[in-house]
Fold this protein.
Amino acid sequence: MEIIRFVFWEAVKIIGLVFLGLVATKAVAGLAAPKAWIKPALYALIMALAAVGAWEAGNDVAAQGYVWSCNSNLERGDLSKAYSNALQAVRLRPKNLSYWQTLIQVKTRLQQFQSVLDDEPAVRALSNGDLDELDEYQYALCSYFLGQYDKVVATTLRLIRQNPAYASPYVLQGLAYTAEKKYPEAQQSFLAVLQIFPNNQGAVEGLARAFYLGGNRQKALTVLDETAKFPFPPPVRQRFEALKGLYDQ
């Protein structure tokens, strides 16, 4: 559907460009110019404008083609080509926010965390200074992997205030507190999300780990035992059992 919509609008642009060129050419042909050089100059101007329009339309098509190729690369797990294609799309259309977001996604998967944060000013400018919650979360995630835990906590607190039902910031906040060895705060973060989503795997594992690292091994085991009340797929249950074996040593 996205491809059809894009092709339709690009076709509309090209048809409109051709139509305007024809109308302008016809108007110049019927013009009673007082000097001989005026008509050739107007024809040259029309051709130049048409060329610029065609160039812009061509860049639009090329940039979108790079993004489609990038998405295909991501599906196949070819991150190197995905990065190259996303970067080309941004270079062709640096004012297209969605292309920057695609590049961020690829860089995050490539663990280019500092590079993602370096791109934040450009993305924020295109968002009029107001990033959407997914972009904010991506930057917080990169900050976490770079060890910038205070920044992670500040961002996740803001995201939680904006959308209390958004689970991922609670989990990331808990991980940041755990990394700072603030285990009671980490436990509160994980418990907060489990009250909303009791079958959130990340929160369950994070809460058990926070209790264990905080010196409460029995409480960690209890957290994992209580997962029996909720539906988890077999691979996740196997992981919980493995964690129980680890924490019970």
Summary: Residues 6-10 have pLDDT under 50 and may be disordered. The first helix runs from residue 2 to 29.
